[in-house]
Design a protein that fits this description.
Blueprint (H helix, E strand, L loop, with lengths): L51 H41 L2 H7 L4
Length: about 100
Amino acid sequence: MRPSQIMRSGGDGEIGKYGKYLGGWGNFGSQTQKGIASYALSANRQRPLAGALNNAIFNSWRRFRNQVLYFAPPIVIGYYAINWAIERNHYLNSKEGRLEFGEEE
């Protein structure tokens, strides 16, 4: 049994299943390049609000359409109940209402 070999940063040592140590990425035996700068932008940094307004409009409409039957009927019923109560109160406090129901209260 051989002792394990040292993993060097150059990537020249024969280590691994196929006889090459793949730890030194980019070291393929050519000369090192100088003076080349490359800049990149992450995929999630490019146009972060692309399509946000369009998606917001259609997503809001879809969510509203799916939820309207849960909140619209109670609002309509409440509106008609309050409207009936206001009209009934106005009638009971009018001359006709006092003449009709004045003796009962």
